[in-house]
Write a structure and sequence with these properties.
11 strands; acyltransferase; Alpha-Beta Plaits; about 25% strand; about 210 residues; Aminopeptidase
Length: about 210
């Protein structure tokens, strides 16, 4: 395992452990974060830990054409149950993602340091938020890194049933219309699999980067 220094560089992702851990240390300055995502690497750690950098193999991805929309979700979309916006409340979205309780998770990996780093990326035009509203109330959202041809999803939250799924479907359709080839979902979850995501070898994912 590599210990990062002040130099903005990463070892080859082939050096990652079987669990996907590539390196520890370094910082979350924008230049390092962008290099990480462009190299198939992302940070994931808990409060009080050093920054841990990951590049798992296999990689969970969603090709826009493979998006699965259930009959019930199609009905919600037709009824325009929620309103979706982009980049209107990034700070609120990432804060909600950090605070929302998740089954089997005692604390959040979105530390204050992470929040500040991704807010800075957003202000520089590299991080995108999706907001889901019912009337004037924020009820769901997603944020991630937009590399143009690839969107790297980071986290989502929902205060109402299906709100984040509603926003995710809108996001995938929006990305497809704008030429996005792939949504990086990082690691497997049943929720993402139900939407059409699946695992591919890391080398396949890197070929799209």
């Amino acid at each position: 395992m590599y210990i990062l220094t002040d130099k903005i560089a990463f070892p080859p992702v082939s050096e990652a452990t079987s669990e996907g851990i590539l390196a520890v240390g370094g910082d979350l300055q924008p230049e390092r974060l962008l290099l990480a995502y462009q190299s198939g690497i992302f940070p994931w750690y808990s409060e009080g830990e050093p920054i841990i950098w990951w590049s798992p193999d296999p990689r969970m991805v969603l090709f826009p054409d493979d998006l699965k929309v259930s009959k019930s979700m199609k009905q919600l979309l037709r009824r325009e149950t929620f309103t979706v916006t982009y980049n209107q409340a990034f700070r609120h979205v990432i804060r909600a993602c950090a605070l929302i309780e998740r089954p089997g998770q005692d604390d959040t990996w979105i530390t204050v340091e992470m929040e500040e780093a991704y807010i800075e990326l957003h202000e520089k035009g590299h991080a995108t938020s999706v907001e889901v509203w019912r009337d004037d109330k924020l009820v769901g959202g997603i944020y991630g890194i937009d590399l143009g041809h690839i969107f790297c999803g980071e986290s989502m939250f929902s205060f109402e049933s299906n709100a984040s799924k509603f926003g995710f479907i809108h996001l995938v359709q929006h990305l497809k219309q704008n030429g996005c080839q792939l949504i990086d979902c990082q690691m497997h979850t049943d929720h993402l699999a139900s939407l059409g995501a699946y695992e591919v070898p890391r080398e396949v994912f890197l070929s799209y980067l």
